[in-house]
Amino acid sequence: MDPPNPHQAVGFSNKDKAYVIWSCQSRTSRYAELIKQALQAIEENKIFTLYSSSTAIRKALLERGWIEKIPPDRMNLSKLRNGPLRTRTEIYAELERYFLSNFVEKCQPNFIWLLKCQQFETALKDMMEAKECNTIINKIKKDAMWTSKQGLCSSMKRNYWFYIEDVAEVNGPRTYNSYDAGEIEGFVKDYKITACTSLLKWVLSMASNERPVFVKSGKISIKVLVFALNRCKEYLFRKQHKDIDHSLSTASPAHWNAFLKKYYRIIAKQDLFQEDKNNKLPTYLGYAKFLLREIHKYRPQLSCEGCHNIWIIKPAYCSRGKGIRMASKLGVITDLLNKANDKFVIQKYIEEPLLIHETKFDIRQYYLVTSTFPLVIWMYTDCYLKFSSQKYSLKNYHEAIHLTNNAVQRNYKNCKGRHAELPQNNMWDSEMYKQYLKKIGKRKLWERVIYPGMKKSIIGIMLSCQDSLTISKNRFELYGCDFILDKDYKPWLIEINSCPDMHNSTPITAKICPAVLADIIKVVVDYARDSKSSTGKFECIYHQPITIPRKASDMCVRGYSLPLDYFYRDNIEIKDSYDADTDKERDIKAMVHKLKGFYDPDILFQLDDDDSSSSQNSKKDDTINDHTGCDHNTGSENELSLAATVITEQLDEIIDRITSDNSFTLKSDKKMDANSTNSSKNHKHMVKRMQSVTDIKALLKSTRTTRFASLETLSIKQKFSFNGPQGKGSFDQFNPIKKMFEKLPKRTHQSKAKKFGNNNDLKEIQNEMFDATSKIISFINQKEKEYLHQFLE
């Protein structure tokens, strides 16, 4: 025969129902009130079911006009006949409760409070058949990622991805899962480097307290300290990625075993080092301080992990302190893990916690999650402290000293010599602790360090686990997390418990637990229906922002024009870059070097490297001028002056023809004075026009944007094609170039030829001018092709 199902719907028999109804009908006026109350609750969706004896939840809902639908397995008249109910008032109250439950037995409850052992699917079997379940339930479907020690360990390892400055930051001890071989290997490496840092901390601590460390009678070689220094240096190199290009020497397993044996002797048996004969101790101590300071950046727990290298081994799925062990030797820990059949987590023990009157304590903090997507977290502003019953000591690993769980401490009596200010029931509420902080001059630390630190840890760990959750409508859950404070009052997250114990085990829990449960109803019932309602002492510490998705058709790109200065580090003026003094710049190459101030040197390299420049100049002079921009020695002072003047005039004519109306027209150019006789102004004019022609890509862009205000009036009157004639300003359009010089007034040639004495000198200068001008036109032609090619693509 199958065993009875504890969740089987037994309920009242017909006889029991008849008795309950008759008992209420005998009181006619009260019976009518009960019927009216039940109908109103059905209409307003105020029916709840509790799978636990949570008096605070029941009381809070009854005060709001809700009706309890009692689970069938909990409806039993034996409580009335043989139970603790003695007075007639208590009996009638219980009969009315059964009557109302029987009246709404076919209605779906609108609020359900489950126990930890309650199977979620079993309890909601009837309701899950509906397409939409609007029932509020105190369980999130999947929460093992952070409520189990194993899941919390995994969550902490990826938490750095969810760091938000001043919002989300988790501080937790280093933890490893025993079921993963890679995790065990990581733990062994961590244990070894922790032994090195612990030794350095021990030596520095002894030296700062002026206690003997290096003595004649010492038995430990100073090489042990050097070994630890080298391993810490290698650890830093790996963290700083310096091992990528340089291989690091690693210690062999035999060396590590020898070091750990000496380390155990130093820490446990207080063995000392041999005397420092080479007087290197100051250097070693200074180097140790430096290494520890740098390592602390990568291992924040270094400030509170002590010198004994103690680790705590916890069963992955146990609670209330069951099965927890502590050990400081690597061999003991590995043997324990190898022999165990269950999964464990190995966590670095905080050896230097904050103590109150030489006694260890932790903080139990409650928080509430009312939504998973978006994530909404509420934190209870009140909490309580759990003390150990014994004085803190690292010489003894007994659970009464190190485990502050109430389930453990209630099994032990408080030690002798215990401070009078410590509570006999080993609990303080947060107000008592604040008074203590005020007494020792630390009253502001709660608001500035402790409470914000716990808040950031809770937000951070929930963000790191959010991806493992499903979207749960009308779901919420209360969690209890434990924190330990270090000597700087920074909270360290130890563990998180789902369905925390809310029983009144001590006067402190009898006060805070019912208040927490009553305030939960304020949040999930009152506040959910009216956002102006009170939430008690629950504070919303995080409400995840939501970005509304848009359809592709609704998307558009918006922007603004960037100023010219955005693309340059300095304000480049044309005058400073191009204003060539024709009396000093004697060669076209010098002018090209001036152009380099505005254009990218890679664009103008062809102009510099062309072998057809200035046949009368030596290669040496060309090389020097390419790098320095110095003057060329092309002849006498008069010859150079004449050449510069003629080149300037011809360039003006070339640029004028390039920027004719057949190609581009700039309104700004029409305003220029074409009849100006000043050579420097003519040269500026030439440069501006050259810029407008060669920077075709920028001009094309200006037809679509307002990036450059000076190019707003640009208009393209002719399409560019690579198959037909070249665009305006191309080399073909000015072929042959000598025709330009033929168009020059003869008077100019003749008057200037007299200064040279014969026509040969003039022809030579004209040839040089022709070569130089050909280069510029070739350059313009090439850049025009490049810009047009980019535009057409």
Cα Rg: 44 Å
Shape: flat
**Structurally, how many domains make up the residues?**
4
Mean of pLDDT:
75
- The percentage helix is 40-55%
The description of the largest β-sheet is: 8 strands, antiparallel
Tell me the distance between the termini.
Answer: 84 Å
The number of helical runs is 29
Spans of at least 5 consecutive residues whose pLDDT stays below 50 are: 1-9, 572-588, 594-644, 657-741, 746-757
Strand content: 5-15%
Q: In terms of structural class, how would the helical and strand content be classed?
A: alpha+beta
Number of strands: 18
List the helices and strands and how they pair.
Blueprint: H1 14-25, H2 28-43, E1 47-50, H3 55-63, E2 67-68, H4 78-82, H5 88-103, E3 111-113, H6 120-123, E4 136-137, H7 144-147, H8 149-157, E5 175-177, H9 181-208, E6 214-215, H10 223-239, H11 253-269, E7 273-274, H12 281-295, E8 311-315, E9 325-327, H13 330-339, E10 344-348, E11 355-356, E12 359-372, E13 375-380, E14 384-387, H14 399-402, H15 406-409, E15 427-429, H16 430-439, H17 445-465, E16 477-485, E17 491-498, H18 507-529, E18 538-543, H19 574-578, H20 588-595, H21 605-609, H22 619-628, H23 637-658, H24 667-670, H25 679-694, H26 696-702, H27 738-742, H28 746-756, H29 759-792
Parallel strand pairs: 1-2, 1-3, 3-4, 6-7
Antiparallel strand pairs: 5-10, 8-9, 8-10, 11-12, 12-13, 12-14, 12-16, 13-18, 14-15, 16-17
